[in-house]
Design goal:
Elements lengths: L8 H24 L5 H25 L7 H19 L10 H4 L3 H16 L4 H11 L6 H9 L14 H10 L4 H18 L23 H10 L14 H4 L3
Protein name: PoNi C-terminal domain-containing protein
Organism: Phytopseudomonas flavescens
InterPro entries: PA2201-like_C, PoNi_C, PoNi_N
Length: about 250
């Protein structure tokens, strides 16, 4: 049964199948040398990373068992490592082009948190998480990201006191150190404003209004990450429209 209430199972069937087929075609081109230019390889690899994450989110929206996502999460790590390797191989005069895939833009920020959320909630091992954190990098740039990385074992990481997106993420950061009951209230308040807070920032905002606009579902995986890592009671917001409760409770 679909978890998403805005699109049908058939919608997600169609686009998951389409994306997986296109991903395989693109990977085949990379493997066979069909993409000769170094930066062309980077853009192809970046698209594979995006699609790999989108397929997982669509699978969640479709109603797939969370326990079945582990292989997809392993693949996402492999896609990210491939992207880094191809960025490292760029000529010196093209190295600056990699910044768009690595900096904390709003879309990258969300992708990094969603990736971490999936890895944590699916119980990926310490070595896997270390590789994820190393690839995300950006140490000392964002308080929320740094605190989560430290919680996951990156104890030597520089920790910022500032948020890159304070308007959107101050409540979630506050929840980390608040008293137990207040933690739940802060996360719920964050969830209540989450979707609207993405307006004019997230590329996917309002894309449920079309049939071929890349809709994957509106799930606040970053809230799930904080709840799981910091042991926050989610009983007061478990049925929230944007909260992926089944991911947290692995059902």
């Amino acid at each position: 049964m679909p978890r998403d209430t805005l699109k049908s199972k058939e919608f997600f069937d169609k686009w998951i199948s389409y994306d997986l087929e296109r991903m395989q075609q693109k990977q085949n081109r990379l493997d066979s040398g069909g993409i000769p230019l170094p930066y062309g390889k980077v853009t192809a690899a970046a698209d594979l990373c995006n699609k790999a994450l989108e397929v997982i989110v669509m699978s969640y929206s479709r109603g797939d068992r969370v326990a079945d996502f582990s292989g997809h999460v392993v693949r996402l790590l492999a896609e990210r490592e491939q992207l880094k390797a191809l960025c490292d191989a760029l000529p010196k005069d093209e190295q600056k082009k990699r910044i768009q895939y690595e900096r904390l833009s709003f879309d990258n920020y969300l992708d990094f948190f969603w990736w971490l959320s999936l890895a944590v909630c699916l119980g990926m091992d310490e070595a896997h998480l270390e590789r994820v954190i190393a690839l995300i990098n950006n140490a000392g740039q964002d308080a929320l990201l740094d605190r989560i990385a430290v919680k996951l074992g990156a104890h030597q990481r520089a920790v910022s006191n500032e948020l890159v997106f304070p308007k959107q993420y101050a409540l979630l950061l506050q929840a980390l150190d608040a008293p137990s009951q207040e933690q739940s209230n802060l996360v719920k308040k964050f969830l209540d404003g989450w979707y609207k807070g993405n307006k004019n920032l997230a590329a996917w905002y309002d894309n449920h209004k079309g049939e071929d606009t890349g809709y994957v579902g509106y799930w606040c995986f970053e809230a799930a990450l904080v709840v799981k890592l910091f042991g926050i009671d989610d009983s007061s917001f478990r049925t929230h429209a944007h909260y992926p409760a089944d991911l947290v409770h692995n059902t």
